[in-house]
Fold:
Amino acid sequence: MNLVSATPASLQLAAEIIRNGNLVAFPTETVYGLGADALNATACAKIFAAKNRPYFDPLIVHLADLSWLEKLSAQFDERARRLAEKFWPGPLTLVVPKTGLVPDIVTAGLPNVALRMPNHPLALELLRAAQTPIAAPSANPFGYLSPTTAEHVAEQLGNKIDLILDGGPCPIGVESTILDLTEEKPRLLRPGGLPLEMLEPLAGRIEIYQSDSERPLAPGQLPSHYAPRTPAAFLNADFKFPADQKAGLLAFQTPIENLPFAKIEILSPAGDLAEAAANLFSCLHRLDRAGLQIIFVEPVPEAGLGSAIMDRLRKAVGTRQVE
Ligand code: TXA
Ligand code: MG
Structure:
């Protein structure tokens, strides 16, 4: 089994695997990442192969110290610096112009690179030990639910990764917020673990980027993404229980009484959005494994972390028609 708990020895081994151009899955505060040496194009190509990820979808580059900035970014201006100083390490990814050192495969040919310093002791130790920035998407097959435990990674990609470092469940549970700083107006490419409300005081007014599925600006924002294999639908006002189907429920705070759901998962009994985010992907993984025909999803309040949760839920429901 290539799943190991994190020890000084397994961290050294993981760093060696990265330096040798191979793949390691590791925990971050948001979700587990599937990492390769970001400066080695061949190593990064292995990420795309393992995930079955289209080459037009660029990777986030993780760093452990700011000295990498000038090597990776052709322009890390005052505004970027302010944000990095305040929110790194943390769940914020900044898209900035890249240098020639960043292989094109990492940025899918775009002139910009996405950078972040993760706030997880194991991720930081791995980055320091590997002595290179690490390109890492979420460690899941393309389009599927993100992994927030090492077991999620092992189940979905176990045979395609050289080593999975187990650091327990990810404390935040949704991916980083992605902010594009390549133009005058900052643009939110993906809502995530750092709420917009916290960014605006430092970044100024942020434009919300509306993805249209053809454009490669933020390709992870395809309408169906982060999706379980089981069809999913929002629990809306005209909901009727499908008598002929084995249905599951993802509830925010309280289950719905008196309906024969075959399985119910609750995001946060206390109604706390941070707890809901931390539980989101684990609840969806369990529902997806329960042999259901449909998963009904209750919307959560759309403020703070609720925006990131609703973004993931909309993509889990996707554009699929469910009867
Ligand atoms: O929390 C996270 O961000 C996690 C952990 C592992 O750090 N990573 C993650 O990576 O969510 P991934 O690959 O699942 O999502 C990365 C997304 C891409 O789909 C794309 O939308 C955006 O980041 N992205 C990456 N590089 C970009 C670039 N150069 N320009 C615009 N968007 C970019
Ligand atoms: Mg992902």
In short: The mean pLDDT is 94.
